[in-house]
Amino acid sequence: MYGNRDFNRWRRHPWHGLQAIPNPAKPDVVRAYIEITPSDVVKYEVDKQSGFLMVDRPQRTTSSPPALYGFIPQTYCGDRVAARCADAECADGDPLDICVFSERLITRADILLKARVVGGIQMIDEGEADDKIIAVLEGDNIWGDVQDIADLPAIKTERLQHYFATYKMVPGKDSDILVDSVYGRDEALAVIAASMQDYETEFGHLHD
Length: 208
What we know:
The chain has helices spanning 79-83, 154-166, 185-203, and strands spanning 29-36, 42-46, 53-58, 68-71, 90-91, 97-101, 111-125, 128-129, 132-137, 177-184. It is α+β, with helices and mostly antiparallel strands. It has one domain (29-207): Alpha-Beta Complex (Inorganic Pyrophosphatase), CATH 3.90.80.10. Strand 7 and strand 8 form a beta hairpin. The longest helix is centred in the last third of the chain and has 19 residues, at 185-203. The two termini are 31 Å apart.
């Protein structure tokens, strides 16, 4: 028998079963569920029904993400997120994506971590707002003191923009993805707040 009976009998859903902000006193530090690591050339994605990590597709190219890639729990890209992107027709209807820089190579996905938000990329994918929040691993020995995207080397953001501009490319087909707009910490926090409100509107009944 376990000494501590305060545990979930079944696996907690990484989207619906976890809070976005683990400590309300630190609103710029969010919880991130990691789906893909920088060494992955297969796109993994959480199965929204079961909460298990699944293979979405093998990447057509050799491109791999330059940062840990996942999403912030209990967020949803809906009308409020779309309203912050003037050129978007709507939002993509998924959890809010996050990219996390870590000095130490983390080689496994399906993990949780705490990340300090520093900025974001306003990505538009076929008319849909698909923002990518940029963050650093909380307590990281190299990036842990970064407060805003301006404090990161510009090449870090450029590599993320290049990855998202090209990771869906298919030879002979046009790609309708825009990643030109980059924003700082304050706007990133506003996007997160909007996505949390969108989540409450869409899924608040799950937590009643």
